User: Fold this.
Amino acid sequence: MSISLTSFAKINLGLRIGRLRSDGFHELRTVYQTIALHDIVSVSVEPGSGIEIRCDDPRVPLDSTNTCFRIVDRAMQALKARGRVVIEIEKRLPVQGGLGGASGNAVAALLGLERALRKKLPVPERLRIAAEVGSDLPLFFIGGTVLGVSRGEEVYPMPDLPAIPCVVALPEIAVSTPKAFADWDSLCGDNAKLTPSTHSDRMLEFSREISAWLSAVPIAGRRRSGVSAIGGGRAENLLLDLVRTGIENDFEKVVFPKYPEMREVKRVLEQSGVRYASLSGSGSAIYGLFNSRERAAAAAKKLTRHGTRAVVTSTFTRQQYWKAFSH
Assistant:
């Protein structure tokens, strides 16, 4: 029997890049947010052995470099299970788009495998395996709004916020995340202001921005404080209140100069009544958050007229996320 699951995408609400660590990864601070855009992943377990990946998109690897292959291989060993695992990926999300498509696919594959085998890994074991495969896999075991620290794999659920209309622009560009990190390191080397101590200060600043926002988030129908995290009256939407703290994506500093057409996409969003626009991850997807679906649809049409594919969707709360997985 084949188990089919939706494999959701994410955007980054701010992304701060810190120092290069001894393990070769960078220290990161980010807020992940799941959105309704998705792929479809189907998993079946047959007699035999091995793992087979099937996908019509030629950009998706079908060998052991695929994140689905890697996570299922580890899970089969941890579950002490036998059989031939067949994973079919119906790709709707862009490859190398900054939306976490491959990571979401892997988590859906693991959940599908558990259902097919009628076995479950303990949650800590799931997270450990996910973190071994990739830095942004663990967020997809939480969903909704998620704080990511360390290299992004250490995740903490944040307050589950109301859904908000979102436009995701999808330029026909594939941005290499390792190359974007290398460009960032080069920028830091050329910029005397970005010393090791400055890196620490910038990470601390991001943490303070998030802490200030959390201090104003309502609990059980009441506020912790009577004012917005940025002063003035309480914002009409807590998610917009978060982005109003001024959080930014550091990758924009190195990706936009190389791909000016992506900077233009953000400019079009900013001129379309967006409340917040940003690169997601290292790109190439650029998203905008809107007050209404009507404004979001108008912005998407404007982007399409400019030659960039754009889709209207919404952010996905934790409850919506797991409800979709339960079907």
